[in-house]
């Protein structure tokens, strides 16, 4: 009696090696994406925090009387609000129709501060600068334009410089 042998097909060693290499390549690519996604998420957090800080500073500035030349903000920092007619404070630049703080220029005393975010476990530091453009009629301020810039400076990441502005008029 003759026994019938069946042919069983399996994977050769070469096929298993190729499949393993392809799988490992995919794992490495995914592993590289995770730190990038984490960095992007952290930068987004810094940018969002910068916007909140800028808006908060701006709100405190415009809540002051037009004649105020300075005040102490809610964090205990002394802030200048201009006094004489014209622009006082940090240099600004105009690009593409948008006004922003010129971060390449040096900080102007009384118109900048370094802020540490108390809600951030890493104690993130932000550079805050502002300029005030005062309009005066017969020696009395009748309007102020505030331009506030905030930048999370960190050599390990690239974060966006945020600029907000508002006008206060009598």
Could you characterize the architecture of this molecule?
The protein is 29% helix and 34% strand. The chain has one helix at residues 13-62, and strands at residues 70-72, 78-80, 86-89, 92-95, 98-101, 112-116, 125-137, 140-152, 162-169. It has one domain (13-169). With 170 residues, the chain is an alpha+beta fold. The strands form three sheets. Strands 3, 6, 7, 8 and 9 form a five-stranded antiparallel beta sheet that branches. It has a two-stranded antiparallel ribbon with strand order 1-2.
Query: What general outline do the C-alpha atoms trace?
Result: rod-shaped
SSE topology string: HEEEEEEEEE
Distance between the termini: 112 Å
According to DSSP, the number of beta strands is 9
Q: How large is the radius of gyration? A: 29 Å
Number of helices: 1
| Uncertain segments | none
What share of residues is helical? 25-40%
Structural category: alpha+beta
Mean of the pLDDT scores?
88
Whole-number total of structural domains: 1
Question: Major beta sheet, specifics?
Answer: 5 strands, antiparallel
Beta-strand level of the residues, as a percent range? 25-35%
Q: What keyword list fits this structure?
A:
170 residues; alpha+beta; two-stranded antiparallel sheet; 29% helix
In short:
The protein has about 170 residues and is an alpha+beta fold. The chain contains 1 helix and 9 strands; from the N terminus they run H-E-E-E-E-E-E-E-E-E. It has one domain (about 15-170).
């Amino acid at each position: 009696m003759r026994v019938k042998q069946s042919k069983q097909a399996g994977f050769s060693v070469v096929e298993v090696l190729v499949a393993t290499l392809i799988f490992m390549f995919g794992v490495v690519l995914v592993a590289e994406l995770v730190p990038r996604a984490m960095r992007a998420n952290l930068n987004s957090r810094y940018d969002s925090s910068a916007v909140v800080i800028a808006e908060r500073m701006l709100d405190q500035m415009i809540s002051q009387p037009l004649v105020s030349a300075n005040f102490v903000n809610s964090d205990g920092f002394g802030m200048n609000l201009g006094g004489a007619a014209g622009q006082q404070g940090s240099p600004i630049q105009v690009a593409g129709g948008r006004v922003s703080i010129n971060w390449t220029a040096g900080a102007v005393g009384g118109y900048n501060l370094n802020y540490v975010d108390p809600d951030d476990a890493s104690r993130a530091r932000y550079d805050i600068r502002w300029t005030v453009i005062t309009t005066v009629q017969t020696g009395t301020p009748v309007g102020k334009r505030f331009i506030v810039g905030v930048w999370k400076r960190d050599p390990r990441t690239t974060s966006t410089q945020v600029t907000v502005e508002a006008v206060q008029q009598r």
